[in-house]
Each structure stands twice: as structure tokens, then as C-alpha cells.
Amino acid sequence: MADGSTDGSPSDLIDARIAELDDWRGETLARIRALVREADPEVVEAWKWRGVPTWEHDGIICTGETYKQVVKTTFAKGASLPDPAGLFNSSLEGNTRRAIDFRAGEAIDEAAFKDLVRAAVALNRG
Questions:
Q1: Model pTM?
Q2: Which of 119, 126, 104, 123 is nearest to 39 (CA)?
């Protein structure tokens, strides 16, 4: 299912992606997902672009892409979000998106991450 097929709900597909990543990447993606849900209990999960977990509320909040060396969380309107903790460390050159690359063994600043999610929801709401 996690190969981009459309069988199952987006939440089921995200579950399958987490399960197939039986290493630090699956754990990190699961933690990111939990933090997004904690920050915004009304979040809607989506499965876009042939296999990218996506979280939405009045528009895209962020995505959870997995690569060999990083789990990349891209905020669709990240360039417009306050980031006092300096979490954004990737895709810094663009005018719209910003991303956080999480690597094996790195801790997530959970409070700052949830603040980014809340700010993204507020921005989407206008």
C-alpha cells in the first residue's frame, strides 16, 4: 500500500508507510505525525504525490517525506511562519516553503514543532 497506490484511507497508507520503515525513519515519522495531531486535533491526513504523507487544515500544513538519510518535514508556507527556535534547516532559499530535515538520533524540539504547526494552521485560516 505504501507504494503510492490508492487502496485504503490516507491514515491507513500512512500507517503502512510507518510500518514498512522499520528503523529510525519510521519512528521519526510516527513521532512527527503524533505531534501534528497533538498540535491540531482537527488535522486531516492526506496521501499525495504518489506516496507523501500530508497533514492539512484549511490547506496543507506540512508533509512527511522519508529518504535514506533524513525524514523531511516540509511546511507549505514555512517562509511566512515565525521560527524563533530555528527549526527550519532545509529549503531555506525559496519564497514559500521551508523544511526541517531530521536525521538519525536527533531529538525533536516538540514544543517548538507544535508551535510551527499551530502557526501554519493560523496562517491557512487567514
A1: 0.92
A2: 119
Residue pLDDT, tens place only, 82-100: 999 999 999 999 899 999 9
For 37-65, the pLDDT digits (tens) are 999 999 999 999 889 999 999 999 999 99
Do the beta carbons of residue 62 and residue 74 sit within 8 Å?
Answer: yes
Residue 39 · residue 50 · CB < 8 Å? no
Per-residue three-class SS string for the chain: CCCCCCCCCHHHHHHHHHHHCCCHHHHHHHHHHHHHHHHCCCCEEEEECCCEEEEECCCEEEEEEECCCCEEEEECCHHHCCCCCCCCCECCCCCCCEEEEECCCCCCCHHHHHHHHHHHHHHHHC
Residue 102: CB atoms within 10 A of its CB come to 25
User: Longest C-alpha distance within the chain, in Å?
Assistant: 40
Q: Is the pLDDT of residue 1 over 80?
A: no
